[in-house]
Design goal:
By secondary structure, the protein is of the alpha+beta class. It has helices at about 10-20, 30-35, 45, 55-70, 75-85, 90-100, 120-140, 230, 240-245, 245-255; strands at about 25-30, 50, 165, 170-175, 180-185, 200-205, 210-215, 220-225. Bound molecules: zinc ion (2 copies). One zinc ion binds near residues 192, 193, 218 and 221. One zinc ion binds next to loops.
Length: about 260
């Protein structure tokens, strides 16, 4: 495989972001709603996390500060964003709700007067959201099983998978890059359009088969995959595998396939 060209400074920054811990009390579950989950729609829609607004503001500050350290060209805009975080818990809750449902109105809950850097807004809050959703997914994992969820979209947040792994026993798990959830999925099916037609599904092996890019001729989607039967590991860190394998994305795009995220 060609050397990945993911910028080292950004990789370092992501490593620091990974270290940011969400306190136990920061993200909690609505136990009744979780227990009532019928595995028809993602948990985020029927049992959204309860996020402490104070923890949210502290976390956003930490994320913005980390981003500013590694991406100084954004520092001024990140500071404006920090100053625009709402003081009032009701506004903070509205902002959290809008971010979770990816509602464009999110920006309207920020305090005016500091100048809103809209292009940095999406980037900066995507990291806050990712960290919160990963904490939510971790809490859920001890409470619910995803065994009967046989869909290609994420059982926690509803996003499309951006990576998958074949475990040493040959089982395939899809991975959601937004909330870090993994769930079992059939080997021979497209997670995007659901086809199981063998004439439409194939894969390209890379690195002596350690990686595969599964492609679908019907919807032109692709998923990068690590084959743990070849790499000898179990539970590879798919967040880093995704970053490390940018060259596979390039190959898939050149072959005419597209991200279906
Ligand atoms: Zn997800
Ligand atoms: Zn498809």
């Amino acid at each position: 495989m060609k050397e990945p060209f993911f910028p080292p400074r950004l990789a370092e920054c992501y490593r620091e972001l990974e270290k940011i811990a969400v306190p136990e009390t920061g993200v909690s579950l609505d136990a009744t709603a979780v227990a009532a989950w019928e595995k028809r729609s993602p948990l985020l829609a029927c049992a959204p996390p309860v996020i402490d607004p104070e923890v949210f503001v502290a976390l956003a500050g930490q994320v913005f500060e980390t981003l500013a350290r590694y991406l100084p060209e954004m520092a001024r805009d990140l500071e404006k964003l920090r100053l625009s975080l709402p003081d009032d818990n009701a506004d903070r809750n509205s902002l959290i709700g809008a971010l979770l449902s990816r509602d464009e109105k999110a920006v309207t809950f920020l305090k005016p007067g500091h100048g809103l850097p809209l292009d940095v807004f999406g980037f900066a809050f995507s990291h806050v959201l990712r960290i919160l959703l990963a904490a939510y997914s971790r809490r859920l994992r001890s409470k619910v099983g995803f065994d009967l969820w046989d869909r290609g979209d994420c059982p926690v947040c509803g996003s499309k998978p951006n990576f998958s792994r074949i475990d040493p026993g040959g089982r395939r798990y899809l991975y959601c890059g937004l909330c870090s959830t993994q769930w079992r999925f059939v080997r021979a099916a497209c997670p995007f359009c659901g086809t199981t037609d063998p004439d439409e599904l194939s894969f390209y092996p890379f690195e002596n088969g350690a990686y595969r890019v599964y492609v679908c001729a019907r919807c032109k989607g692709y998923v990068k995959t690590i084959d743990e039967r070849r790499t000898g590991e179990n539970h590879a860190d798919l967040f880093w595998e995704d970053i490390k394998t940018v060259s596979l994305d390039i190959s898939a795009l050149r072959l005419g396939f597209a991200n279906r995220l």
